[in-house]
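Reading a protein record of the kind used here takes only a little practice. The record below shows the convention in full.

——
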Amino acid sequence: MTTSGPTMPVPKIELEYVFQIRITFKERRRFQGPHGKRVYVPIEGGEVWGPRLQGRVVPRSGADYAGPAGLNAHYMLEATDGSLIYLHNRGYLYRTDGKDTPLDDPTWGGDAPHYFRICPTFDAPIGPHDWLTRTLIIGTGERHASPEDYTLFTYYAVR
């Protein structure tokens, strides 16, 4: 049995580039648990730039927690006006070249090709940045292992 409703136009979704974040790391702590590989990566700092947000990543304000269920990361941002903004990134990060990353790889896959997609949530004070708390934002990530260990996130507002 097939059911169909009236034919209605499907609304288009548009993405608006809003900002990028470059987060630097110094160490990676990894281990194998009963549910697979896990990695804890404390942040060193970073910067934020783009048309809707500029500032910095507050040094040592959080970490990436990666495991079999995906990425779960927490950081604090500081906008150029001094506002503190909490960022919670959840998403998926896995290699797309079909190779397994050895547990003893110090770069944890480094510059290998990855599927890296995130859906962040924000907590910002009422004011010029509270749009972050009421806008659906999605993003992409790119891992870079050398010469410096960092991740570049690019964020888009869903319109």
Remarks:
- The chain has one domain: 15-158.
